[in-house]
Amino acid sequence: MAEMDVLTGEYLGMRLALSDIDVENAEFFRYCGAHDLHLQKCDSCSLLRYPPMTGCPWCATLESTWAPVEGVGTVYSYYEVAHAIQPAFRDHLPYLVLLVELDTQRAQPSPDEGLRIVANLVDAEGQLAGPDLVAKVGIGSRVKIVYSDAGENFAIPNFALDESAEQPAPWRYPQE
User: What pLDDT sits at residue 2?
Assistant: First the structure.
């Protein structure tokens, strides 16, 4: 039996492993490992998609190619985590999980759909954002991709506030 190629790494002290049997995700994280955002582009309808998957969710075509994508966008929604279930995140509370709508392919295939990625909010160095930054970011904030290296050819894509972009006053959920 041939040995499988496995991407391995560590993120916040947690061991990560992704086998080549998960073809789409392994390829996605290899691109991230090179600090390069690539997403699958359907060979039939030409729409990009995330998360990586075998078939196009819009036209069901199985064939796709990996296309470079600029990792900038707008916070579409977020969740502020106040109770970390995973012990590795406990020292970073509160932290934000973002749903980012990329500028690429905005409002396609319809005005209510776009290319959206789930990721953590980090600082410019790729560390989970501290409370001051967490309180500053909300719906409408402009963000850019930042990679947190996890191992050889393996990185976690996250987003940081894009300090070079004009920032609107973000909408935030009411605080208790």
Answer: 43
Is 1's pLDDT higher than 50? Answer: no
How many Å apart are CA 138 and CA 76, to the nearest integer? 8
Domain boundaries, the chain: 6-161
Q: Could you write out the DSSP letters of every residue in the chain?
A: -PPPPEEEEEETTEEEEEETTSHHHHHHHHHHHTT--EEEEETTT--EESS--SS-TTT----EEEEE---EEEEEEEEEESS-SSGGGGGG-SEEEEEEEESTTTT-SSTT---EEEEEBB-TTSSBPPHHHHHH--BT-EEEEEEEEEETTEEEEEEEE-TTSPPP--B-PPP-
Q: State the sign of the Cα–Cα–Cα–Cα dihedral 128, 133, 135, 136.
A: negative
pTM > 0.85: yes or no? yes
Cβ atoms of residues 108 and 46 within 8 Å: no
Reference 96, options 149, 173, 165; nearest CA is: 173
Architecture of domain 6-161: Beta Barrel (2.40)
Cα–Cα nearest to 146, from 124, 167, 116, 128: 124
